[in-house]
Structures are given as C-alpha cells and as structure tokens.
From TrEMBL:
Taxonomic placement: Bacteria, Bacillati, Bacillota, Clostridia, Eubacteriales
Transmembrane segments: none
An annotated Gene Ontology molecular function: hydrolase activity, hydrolyzing O-glycosyl compounds
Record-linked Gene3D superfamilies: 1.50.10.10
Annotated InterPro entries: 6-hairpin_glycosidase_sf, 6hp_glycosidase-like_sf
SUPFAM superfamilies listed in its UniProt record: Six-hairpin glycosidases
GO biological process: carbohydrate metabolic process
Name this polypeptide is given: Uncharacterized protein
Length: 625
C-alpha cells in the first residue's frame, strides 16, 4: 500500500468545489505520519491565496482508558512511553471515488476517521472527526482539533476570524460549538495555562476540545471542524453560519451532487472491474476539482506550479472531460484557456499563465501550443456539435493555423524548439531540435483547422491547411523516421515516447511505422528494473536518475493495443496503477526511493487513466468519430 502523498512537500491530495481548494497530506515536513489538512486556498487556486499558517490543521485524541494519546507530533509528554508508537495510516480514499476524502488512522487502541469535503455553491470546507477503538471497547474520549492560523483579528462567540488581506477572510469554528484556546498547543491539551481569545497579528495555534462517547461497536458521533472563506468578513461569517445551520444535511447533499455529476460519465463502469471503477471515478473527480469556478484549469496539488494555467495540461484536462461526457465544463475550460492566451514576439502563444495575474510564465521554448489549441477547439466543437464555438474562436483558429504555415524552416518541419518536455534549449545547455512531437501535433491541429474552416465556409483556407498538413507530414517522413522507426527529431536518432500518440490519440502515422517504433521504444525506453517507459533518451530527472513516467507508460499501452497486443498493454497500464497512492492518485513519476513527484496533476496523470480506459474499451475513437 502506497502512502507517499506528502513524502515530498510538493505533493498533496486535493478537495475542491471550484470555489475553494483544500490540500491534505499524510506526512508532515519531517516525514512523520499525520492526517494533515495542509492548506486552504481562496479566492484563486494559487499559492498567493493561502489562508492557513504552514502547519495546517490536525487532530489529537485522549482516551480516558489509555496511557497513550493519539498524538501526531509527540507533543504530549505527561506519561512515560507517550512518544513510543507512531500513528499508523490504515486507509485513505475518495469516498466511492467521489470528491470527499477519508482517512482512517490509529495510535495504540485509538482509531480516528476524518472526512473532508466542500459543499457545492459555498466557500466552506468541512472536516468531520470520529473515534473508535481497535479492541471494540466502549470508552470516553476528548477530541482536540487544532488549526494554525496566520492571525486572529476577532472572535464572535466561538467563531474565530482571521484577516489575510483586504479581500481574504477566514472564519473557523467547530460543531458542537466549543470554546477555543489560543497559544501553546501542549498546554491547551493538558490543561496548562492558555488563552481563550487573543488578538494576534502573528501566526497562532487555535485548539478546540470536545468530549465524546465511543460505543463498543462503530464510531462516535462526529464532531465538525468548519472553515469558511470570504472576500469580506461578513461573507466569511455568513458562509460559516449557513453551514452550521445545515450541518446535518451537507455531507449527504455533497455526496448526492457528486453522484449526480458522475451519472454523465459512469457509462463505462459496467465494463470495468471494481479497482478500475474506483480509478475511473477518482480521475473524473480530480478533473472536475481542477477547474476553478470560472473554468480555469489548474494544477491542483503540486506546489511549484500551483496557480498556473498550462495550455498543454489545460487542453488535456478539458478534452478528457469532453471525452468522458462532461461537455459544459469542457467548453467553459476551453474558453478560459483561450482567454489567457497572449502572443509571444514570434506570434505563437505562451504556454503557461498565472491564474491571478494572467502574466505568462515561461521557462522553456515550445512551439506546440498552436497545434494543441487547434486540437482542443476541434475536439470540443466536434463533441458538442455547437458551431458557435468555431465562429467565436475563428480568429484564434486562423492565427494558430497561419503560425504553423509561416514557421517552418528549410526542412519543412516546424522551427526548432524544446518539444513536449521542456528539457531542451540554451537555458539547459542543450540545442533546440526539429522535434517530431511539435511537427506532429501541428499536422494534427491544422488538419482539424481545415475541418473547422469548411464548417463555416472558409473553403480557400481549408484547402491551404490541408496542403500544409501534407507538406509537414512528408517532412516528418523524410527527416524524422529512420528505417520505419519514428525518432525524437531531425537532429538525432534518439527516441521520444511522445511520438506514440501519433499512432493512437492523434492518428496521423501509418501503421507500418508502428511495430518498428514500438520495438525500439520497448528496447530503449523501458526501464529494465522497474518497468514503465521513460520520457525520452538522454533525460535525467532533478534527482539525477533515469525513471519511468506515468504519461509515456499509458501511451505505450495504448500503442500496444493498436498493435493488437493487449496483454503487454495491460502490463504497462498496471505498472502505473501499482505506483498509485492508496487513495488512487497517480504521480507524474516516482523518484528514487519511491518518492513521488507531481501528485494530483489531472492533466498529465489522471487524464491518462480516463483516456487509456476509453482506449482499452474501444470507445476513444467511437466518441470522436
């Protein structure tokens, strides 16, 4: 069982309703196991919108019949032996694969189960806490929810209010309403001197305390920890009061909303075994959670890129939602991506933008954005059958197609760039290359631009786009295919796993190139010890070692299905599932020592789950055609 969420401080399990985003982890910064609500973001899913102090929120429990506290950090030192046994994480999951996160853990005889969710249409995060015993004995317990705030500006009854900025407020309380104490957590737990309320402009811990009876079978009645955000103090308090009045209904209401939404995409479930049913639903849930309320697709759980709208990842997210049947979210997300687009000096588009400022964030040079944008517009237009999309976005379609036409060098290929992987260029002491990925996605995109042009009567443009697509394809065939093996670029015979997509999801390559390319990739990009597929030859990670990646491994499986080799295809698919966290999140890759990078990247990893399942069921091209 994998519990590696949080082993890297960059990785988190997310919960969101589009308006507010919560991060959860299973390890603290010192790799101590803990059921930790790490951070809350409002109003944008951006690091600048963080509401809590870095230590987040966690739970302590005192069982009157036990010598040992349920104590994540070894803070309580009343009795000898208290620090001995660490917390054991027993289970983590999204309930039924939906957007409600559950963690079960224990220390000694004390079992704690938390569920965390955000009701729809609110700025609220709710965390229920229940206690049971391993031995099945009845007892009484004291539960201590702790939250580390950036400050406390005011207290209204037992609601504590934090002011983060002029338009960011956080209100916190518990149900049942119990007195909170600020200051030293250890003293608040053990009855030492503490403060009921303290106005503080500095980070401060807030500890609540409630007594509960635990039956001999099952769990205690839940207590609820509530967090409500607002752009004003009044909004935050109003959101909190509304949640408090409706607390008995909010879990079932949220579960019902998730189930209703999933009825749209649950069609393939009947054909899947239970394990894959769970992954399917979890992945669909994560795609939905990665969209802000305005439709902006965000990397929701991976710290360095938090708050960025990446064109490639965004297109992957919205087209996957569309393929799964969630057309309204897909269309809204597409329009948001288009809204962010800004032209580079050469006329192409930057490929990453900060969601708060809209400012481009570019650290490599990639020319695939226009092809991807054309694919994304075509995909969602084709699935929605809404001609208004093409009419609305025709200036973007025309500009993207013209950029592809005008930006080929003497080889006929798209100008040299960094390809799909951001790992080439002067910034890394690597020369740019005429990358197969860039020219291939440009061919696919401009072919789809031709179809869209015809649909609104632009026949001259349609014919021109078709001509250019053929020319670029012929340049790929001449320069980037060596003895029927599709290689990374014109400049090298090294391999790049992204070329596999042009046999499957973006089918422009002839089948006679498939088996020779598969054979070489299996020989040269398959990890000899771990299985799985590397991104491309000559690549090392930030950790300095070659490692298989989730996306290329899914692509290899899809290509093997195309080659009628299903058993080997599922060997590759299952490699990815074996690397997933217990709750069903897939990493971008696993570093050495099984440390995950990139948990909760729906565009890259969880989209791969959905697209590969559709491909394995033979539904991918049926949906598209």
């Amino acid at each position: 069982m994998h519990y590696f969420i949080g082993e890297s401080p960059n990785n988190h399990a997310p919960i969101s309703n589009g308006r507010i985003l919560t991060w959860l982890k299973q390890y603290d910064e010192e790799f101590i196991p803990v059921d930790l609500l790490s951070q809350i973001f409002f109003p944008d899913f951006d690091l600048m919108s963080a509401l809590l102090h870095d230590k987040g929120s966690y739970v302590f429990v005192k069982d009157e019949k036990e010598k040992i506290w349920y104590d994540p950090y070894g803070i309580v030192k009343q009795k000898l032996g208290q620090v001995g046994e660490i917390i054991s994480l027993d289970n983590t999951r999204y309930v039924d694969g939906l957007g409600i996160y559950e963690v079960t853990s224990h220390k000694g005889n004390t079992v704690v189960k938390t569920k965390t969710w955000s009701p729809w249409g609110s700025n609220v995060v709710i965390r229920s806490i229940q206690v049971s015993t391993l031995k099945g004995n009845a007892t009484n317990v004291e539960i201590f929810p702790v939250v580390n705030l950036k400050n406390i500006s005011e207290r209204i009854d037992n609601i504590f209010i934090s002011r983060i900025s002029c338009c960011q407020w956080l209100a916190v309380t518990t149900i049942p309403s119990i007195e909170g104490k600020t200051g030293d957590v250890g003293k608040a737990l053990t009855g030492g001197a503490s403060t009921v309320f303290e106005h503080s402009s500095l980070p401060i811990a807030l500890t609540f305390n409630v007594k509960k009876s635990v039956p001999d079978k099952g769990y205690s009645a839940p207590i609820y920890q509530l967090f409500a955000a607002g752009k004003t103090k009044e909004e935050a308090v109003s959101q909190l009061n509304c949640a408090m009045r409706n607390i008995d209904n909010l879990y079932e209401d949220t579960l019902s909303e998730w189930k209703k939404w999933h009825t749209i995409s649950d069609g393939p479930l009947a054909k899947l075994p239970p394990k894959l049913q769970y992954y399917w639903r979890t992945s669909n849930s994560l795609l939905r959670m990665s969209l802000q309320e305005d439709g902006s697709p965000i990397l929701i759980g991976f710290r360095p890129y938090q708050g960025n709208v990446w064109v490639r990842d965004g297109i992957w997210i919205v087209t996957t939602l569309a393929l799964a049947g969630h057309l309204e979210e897909a269309k809204k997300g597409l329009y948001r991506i288009i809204n962010f687009l800004k032209e580079r000096p050469d006329g192409n588009y930057y490929f990453a933008y900060n969601v708060t400022t809209g400012v481009p964030n570019e650290h490599a040079f990639e020319n695939d954005t226009t092809g991807l944008v054309l694919y994304g517009i075509w995909n969602i237009w084709h699935l929605t059958k809404e001609d208004k999309i093409v009419k609305d976005l025709w200036p973007i379609i025309e500009h993207s197609a013209n950029w592809i036409i005008d930006n080929r060098d003497e080889t006929g290929l798209i100008n040299k760039d960094a390809g799909i992987w951001e790992t080439f260029g002067p910034h890394l002491n690597e020369p740019f290359e005429n990358m197969t990925w860039t020219s291939g996605i440009s061919v696919y995109g401009i072919v789809k631009a031709s179809l869209m042009a015809r649909s609104i009567g632009h026949l001259v443009e349609a014919v021109n786009y078709e001509r250019v697509a053929v020319e670029i394809f012929m340049a790929i065939e001449k320069n980037n295919v060596k003895e029927s093996v599709v290689v990374r670029s014109k400049q090298t015979a090294l391999l790049d796993s992204s070329v596999l997509l042009f046999f499957t999801e973006f089918p422009i390559f002839p089948k006679q190139w498939l088996n020779p390319t598969l054979q070489e990739i299996d020989n040269r990009l398959r990890d000899p010890l771990l299985g799985g597929i590397w991104r491309h030859e000559s690549l090392t990670t930030e950790e300095g070692d070659m490692r298989p990646w989730t996306g290329p491994t899914f692509w290899m499986g899809e290509a093997l299905l195309t080659a009628s080799r299903p058993q080997l295809a599922w060997d590759y698919f299952n490699h990815n599932y074996r690397n997933s966290a217990f709750c069903g999140l897939l990493p971008e890759l696993m570093y050495s020592k099984d440390r995950a990078r990139g948990i909760a990247m729906p565009g890259y990893s969880q989209s791969g789950v959905i697209r590969s399942i559709l491909y394995a069921l033979g539904l991918f091209h049926k949906i598209k055609l």
